[in-house]
Amino acid sequence: MTGVDAILQGGLQGYLVVALLLFSIGLATVLLRRTLLMQFMGVELMLNAANVALLAFARFRGGDVQAMVFYLFIIAVAACEAAIGLALVIGLYRHRGTTDSDRAAGLKQ
Amino acid sequence: MFITFALITLLGAVAMLLQKNVIVAGLCMVATFFGVAGLFVLLANPVAAALQLIVYSGAIMVLVLFVIMMLSSHEEEAALSSRPIQKWVSLALVAALALGSVRLVMASPGLKALGVRGVAVPGAMTLQQVGTALFADHLLGFEVAGLLLLAAMIGAVALTKRNL
Asked: Could you give phi then psi for residue B75, rounded to 5 degrees?
C-alpha cells in the first residue's frame, strides 16, 4: 500500500498526512484568528495532530505500549494547559474587558 | 472507513478555522475530536479513543465552552489595524509547511517500507497492557503527572479568584 492508495485506504502515510494537515490548520488558527479562545483551540488541535502521528507510528511498529504511556502523559499536560490557559483568559477579561490578543499587546495597563 | 473519519476530522478543523462565532467553532472542534477518536479506533486502539472522547470532547471542550459563555465575547472583535500583509504571509507560510511536509512524507522510502511491514500486526491494544506498562515501568512519571494536575488545579483557582 503506497502512494495515493495509502492515503485512501489508511496506511501509515495516510495517517501522517491527516496529522500534518491537522497541525497546519491548528497553526493557521493560531496565526490568523485574534480571539484568545480560538487561538487556544488551535493549540489543542496541534496537540491532537501530534497524538495522531504518535499512535499511528505505534500501531505500525507492532502495537507498541510505550506510545500509550506517552499519550497519557500528553493528555495530562494538555489538561493542565487548558486549566491554566483558560484561567489566564478569564483574568485578562477581568482586567481589560477583552479577549482579543491584539488588544493585550502590552504588560502595562 | 479511514477516509470517512479523516474527512470528519479535517472538515471539522477547517470549519473551526473559518467560523466567526466562537461557540459554533467550539462545537466544530468537538466534531474534530470525534473524528480523531474514530481514527484511533481504526488504529486498533480503543483505549486511546475512549480517552480522547472523555478527556477532550468531555472535559476540555466543556471547560472551553463554559468560559466562552461566561465571558460573553462570542464574536471576534473588530481589528485595531488592518494589516492584510500579515494574513497573507502567515497563510503562505502555513500552506508551504503543509505541502512541503506532505510531499516529504509521501516521498519517504522508509515510511513506505514501515507501512508495508506494519500491516500484519497483533490485535487491539487492551487496557491491561496499558496499565501494566504504566504502573510497572512508569510509576514515577505517573505520580509526577498527578502532582502536575494538582498544581494546575491550585494555579487555576489562584488565578481566577478575585481576592485570595
From this structure: -110, 155
Q: Cell 491584539 identifies what position?
A: A102
Percent of chain B surpassing pLDDT 90: 40
Q: Identify which of B51, B52, B159 has the shortest CB distance to residue A87.
A: B159
Inter-chain residue contact A80 with B148, CB threshold 8 Å? yes
Q: A90–B160: do the CB atoms touch at under 8 Å?
A: yes
Closest by CA position to B56, among listed A22, A45, A68: A45
Beta carbons within 10 angstroms of residue A6's beta carbon: 23
* Minimal C-alpha gap between A43 and chain B (Å): 12
Cα B132 from Cα B138, distance rounded (Å): 9
Complex prediction ipTM = 0.88
Nearest Cα of chain B lies from the Cα of A101 at a distance, in angstroms, of 10
Report the CATH fold assignment for B1-74.
Four Helix Bundle (Hemerythrin (Met), subunit A) (1.20.120)
Contact between chains at B118 and A76 (C-beta distance less than 8 A): no
Of A28, A63, A83, Cβ closest to residue B94: A28
- Average model confidence (pLDDT) for chain A? 85
Task: Give per-residue pLDDT as tens, B106-160.
Answer: 888 777 777 776 666 667 888 888 889 889 989 999 999 999 999 999 999 998 8
Tell me the three state secondary structure of residue B99: helix
Task: For chain A, say whether B15 makes contact (Cβ under 8 Å).
Answer: no
Q: How far is B154 from chain A (nearest CA, A)?
A: 9
Output the average pLDDT for chain B: 86
Q: What is the pTM of this model?
A: 0.89
Domains and CATH numbers, chain A: 3-104 (1.10.287.3510)
